[in-house]
Design a protein that fits this description.
24% helix, three-stranded antiparallel sheet
Length: 104
Protein backbone atom coordinates (compact mmCIF):
# COMPACT_ATOMS: atom_id res chain seq x y z
CA UNK A 1 0.00 0.00 0.00
CA UNK A 2 1.44 3.37 -0.91
CA UNK A 3 1.00 6.68 0.96
CA UNK A 4 -2.19 7.39 -0.99
CA UNK A 5 -3.84 4.13 0.07
CA UNK A 6 -3.45 2.36 -3.29
CA UNK A 7 -2.83 -1.37 -2.95
CA UNK A 8 0.18 -2.32 -5.08
CA UNK A 9 1.45 -5.69 -6.27
CA UNK A 10 4.73 -7.04 -7.62
CA UNK A 11 3.87 -6.15 -11.22
CA UNK A 12 3.24 -2.49 -10.39
CA UNK A 13 6.22 -2.09 -8.04
CA UNK A 14 8.97 -4.32 -9.43
CA UNK A 15 11.29 -6.86 -7.85
CA UNK A 16 13.40 -4.48 -5.73
CA UNK A 17 10.72 -3.75 -3.17
CA UNK A 18 9.93 -7.43 -2.80
CA UNK A 19 13.63 -8.14 -2.21
CA UNK A 20 13.46 -5.60 0.63
CA UNK A 21 10.34 -7.21 2.12
CA UNK A 22 12.20 -10.55 2.21
CA UNK A 23 14.85 -8.97 4.42
CA UNK A 24 17.15 -7.22 1.98
CA UNK A 25 16.22 -3.72 3.13
CA UNK A 26 16.44 -1.64 6.27
CA UNK A 27 13.05 -2.68 7.65
CA UNK A 28 11.19 0.57 6.89
CA UNK A 29 9.14 -0.50 3.89
CA UNK A 30 5.56 -0.47 5.15
CA UNK A 31 2.79 -2.95 5.73
CA UNK A 32 2.32 -6.25 3.91
CA UNK A 33 -1.41 -6.87 3.58
CA UNK A 34 -1.21 -10.36 2.12
CA UNK A 35 1.05 -12.91 0.46
CA UNK A 36 0.10 -15.34 -2.27
CA UNK A 37 2.03 -18.60 -2.14
CA UNK A 38 2.32 -20.85 -5.17
CA UNK A 39 3.10 -24.44 -4.24
CA UNK A 40 5.64 -26.37 -6.27
CA UNK A 41 6.56 -30.03 -6.51
CA UNK A 42 9.16 -31.02 -3.92
CA UNK A 43 12.15 -32.73 -5.58
CA UNK A 44 13.47 -36.03 -4.25
CA UNK A 45 16.98 -34.66 -3.72
CA UNK A 46 17.68 -31.70 -1.47
CA UNK A 47 21.26 -30.51 -0.97
CA UNK A 48 22.06 -28.45 2.12
CA UNK A 49 25.31 -26.87 3.13
CA UNK A 50 26.08 -24.88 6.23
CA UNK A 51 28.82 -22.35 6.91
CA UNK A 52 29.58 -21.41 10.51
CA UNK A 53 31.87 -18.60 11.59
CA UNK A 54 32.70 -17.15 14.99
CA UNK A 55 32.68 -13.37 15.31
CA UNK A 56 36.47 -13.55 15.54
CA UNK A 57 36.41 -15.29 12.13
CA UNK A 58 34.57 -12.39 10.46
CA UNK A 59 31.06 -13.86 10.72
CA UNK A 60 29.50 -10.47 9.99
CA UNK A 61 31.64 -10.07 6.85
CA UNK A 62 30.30 -13.40 5.57
CA UNK A 63 26.71 -12.17 5.91
CA UNK A 64 27.49 -8.77 4.35
CA UNK A 65 29.18 -10.42 1.37
CA UNK A 66 26.20 -12.73 0.82
CA UNK A 67 23.73 -9.82 0.95
CA UNK A 68 25.75 -8.01 -1.72
CA UNK A 69 26.05 -11.01 -4.04
CA UNK A 70 22.68 -12.79 -3.67
CA UNK A 71 20.48 -10.19 -5.46
CA UNK A 72 22.76 -10.15 -8.52
CA UNK A 73 23.29 -13.86 -9.17
CA UNK A 74 20.96 -16.80 -9.54
CA UNK A 75 22.86 -19.73 -8.07
CA UNK A 76 19.93 -22.04 -7.48
CA UNK A 77 16.88 -23.10 -9.49
CA UNK A 78 14.58 -21.86 -6.71
CA UNK A 79 15.04 -18.83 -4.50
CA UNK A 80 17.92 -19.43 -2.16
CA UNK A 81 17.36 -19.39 1.58
CA UNK A 82 19.83 -17.76 3.94
CA UNK A 83 19.32 -18.16 7.63
CA UNK A 84 21.54 -16.27 10.03
CA UNK A 85 21.19 -17.51 13.57
CA UNK A 86 23.27 -15.70 16.22
CA UNK A 87 23.80 -18.09 19.12
CA UNK A 88 25.54 -18.06 22.49
CA UNK A 89 27.97 -20.93 22.64
CA UNK A 90 30.64 -21.46 25.30
CA UNK A 91 30.35 -17.84 26.43
CA UNK A 92 30.96 -16.28 23.00
CA UNK A 93 28.74 -15.20 20.12
CA UNK A 94 28.45 -17.52 17.14
CA UNK A 95 26.75 -16.53 13.90
CA UNK A 96 25.60 -19.32 11.60
CA UNK A 97 24.73 -18.76 7.96
CA UNK A 98 22.87 -21.59 6.23
CA UNK A 99 22.04 -21.67 2.54
CA UNK A 100 19.64 -24.33 1.26
CA UNK A 101 20.05 -25.39 -2.36
CA UNK A 102 17.15 -27.39 -3.79
CA UNK A 103 17.98 -29.29 -6.99
CA UNK A 104 15.80 -31.65 -9.01
Amino acid sequence: MDVNGRILDKDSMGEDLFWAIRGGGGGSFGVVLSYTVKLVRVPETVTVFRVERMLEQNATDLVVQWQEVAPRVKLFPLDDILRVAPQRECGSERACAKVVDVRT
